Amino acid sequence: MSDALGAGRAEVAFVVQRYGAGVTGGSEALARAVAERLLGDYRITVFTSCAQDYVTWRNELPEGTENLNGVEVRRFASREDRDLEAFNRFAEPLYVRPHTREDEIEFLRRQGPEVPGLVEALAREKDRFTAVVFFTYLYYPTYWGLKAAPERAILVPTAHDEPPLRFGICREVFESARALGFLTPPEETLVRSRFEIGSRPALVTGMGVEVPALPDVRGFRQGFRLGRPYALYAGRIDAGKGCDEMLGFFEQYRQAGRQALDLVVIGKLAMELPEGVRYLGFLSEAEKAAAMAGAEVVVCPSPYESLSIVLLEGMALGVPALVNARSAVLLDHCLRSNAGLYYENGDEFVEALTLLAGDPQLRRALGESGRRYVETHYRWDVVLSRYRLLIDAVITPEA
What we know:
Elements: H1 3-8, E1 11-15, H2 26-37, E2 43-49, E3 64-68, E4 71-76, H3 84-94, H4 101-111, H5 116-125, E5 131-135, H6 140-148, E6 153-156, H7 168-176, E7 179-182, H8 185-194, E8 202-204, H9 217-224, E9 230-234, H10 243-255, E10 262-266, E11 277-279, H11 285-293, E12 297-300, H12 309-316, E13 321-324, H13 328-337, E14 340-343, H14 346-358, H15 360-377, H16 380-395
Parallel strand pairs: 1-2, 1-5, 2-4, 5-6, 6-7, 7-8, 9-10, 9-12, 10-11, 12-13, 13-14
Antiparallel strand pairs: 3-4
Helix pairs in contact: 3-4, 5-6, 6-7, 9-11, 10-14, 12-15
């Protein structure tokens, strides 16, 4: 980091669709974690919406400025709530048929959160910021914010292979940022295969992982009356995260007479669960860590991931993983770490889960590999040093 930055605590803006203690979501959690940990080097101002819920973008938090753990957070009201069913009816045909740029701009408006006040404020104030860091390529604040303040823009796209990534307006997003930070090598490979990044500064920044040193597994098990060994799913419980397929595969596991493990799920419930699956609700961070540490295996069924914090948290606790091989990111984590197994269909899911359930020595070996992997690649000091490099890179961009 340059001496000027260290002495003057230069100002850096973060732009993200939601922000705050009650906000869950991978990119939102990443933005908050990085913002709070960079405060020793920079003054951080976050430009965000008043929403807590990504489904509706309803204005639930007050508009204006507040201080959260030393970070100045400026919230701007969304023009309208999102009707997710109506949005999907509009969006899904665009994924499969020819359409215009105007259709994509309308997609972006309906996708939300539509916060023109945020874009206007950023355009007025951009010159006081050493860098402007945008989290997630997909939303209104990033697209229009990049147009308002491209000069020292850093994009952390959190991208995976999904239909909107093929839109023409995404080219404008990826090719206007001055530098890019990726969560994983497969994400960088995907983005470079679609867009002209050229020689612009780009790093795999990742995300740091912290877990309690001694999760209270015994207290957690007693509190929730978990007497049997279990596999754990943690996260948003809906079909888009691969949960419907996971539930079907677990039923196949049970029907095959494999009864060694129960299935426990935690997080925000957005679909019905079948009988025989234990839903424990939305847990505190300490409870979540205890749930992971007490599991025989952490299951990550989503075919679309840009990082998977849950997977890394489980690895850090020494718990083996079982992941969907259709996700390039999850598969890459398993192959590089040697800390988990993977599946492409129900039969492979059943066999992998059976193997993990019945082989404690294998679980221990995979778990130790996972601990080493996270310690090597996902320490916060390593991650923050990469963000500092990107910020330095946009201060004096190459001619």
